[in-house]
Amino acid sequence: MTPSLTGSEDKSSFDAVIACDCIYNDVLIDPLVQTCIDVCKLRASDATRNEEFTVCIVAQQLRSAEVFEGWLKAFHKAFRVWRLPNEELIDGLKEDSGFVLHIGVLRV
C-alpha cells in the first residue's frame, strides 16, 4: 500500500476505512484484515500525524457465526476493537436487526 492511493499530494494516509457486509465467507477474512492493516499503517508511519489513527469501521450482517468469529479473532490480533452499543446505532442496525458494527484502531 502506498500513500499515492490517497489521490492527493497533500495527504499520505486516510482518516477512516469503511467496510460494509464484506465478511460472508471465511476465504475473505485474511485479505480484508490485511488490507485494513496496510491502510492503517500509512497513518501510523506518517510522522506528521503521529497522534492520530486511521479508524476502521466494519458493519456486517450476521450470516455465519463461524465466519464472524473467525473475522473477529483475526481482526482483534491486529486491532483494538469495540462493538458499538445499541444506543449509538440507528434502528436498522440495532441488536435485533441481524447486523453488528465494530470500530478498530491498529495496535501500535
Walk me through what this model shows.
By secondary structure, the protein is α+β, with helices and mostly antiparallel strands. The chain is built from two helices and four strands, in the order βαβαββ. A four-stranded mixed sheet has the order 1-2-4-3. The longest helix has 16 residues.
Largest sheet, in brief, is: 4 strands, mixed
pLDDT under 50 segments (min length 5)?
Answer: none
Average residue-wise pLDDT: 87
Order of helix and strand elements from N to C terminus: EHEHEE
Distance between the termini: 18 Å
Structural class by helix and strand composition: alpha+beta
Strand content: 15-25%
The spatial strand order of the largest sheet comes to: 1-2-4-3
Shape by Cα distribution: globular
Question: How many beta-strand runs?
Answer: 4
The level of helicity is 25-40%
**How many helices does DSSP assign?**
2
- Rg (CA only): 15 Å
What does this entry show, briefly?
Helix 1 runs parallel beside helix 2. By secondary structure, this protein is of the alpha+beta class. Helix content is 28%, strand content 23%.
Layout of helices and strands:
Layout: E1 16-20, H1 29-44, E2 55-61, H2 65-78, E3 79-83, E4 99-106
Parallel strand pairs: 1-2
Antiparallel strand pairs: 2-4, 3-4
Notable features of this structure?
108 residues, single chain, alpha+beta, four-stranded mixed β-sheet, 4 strands
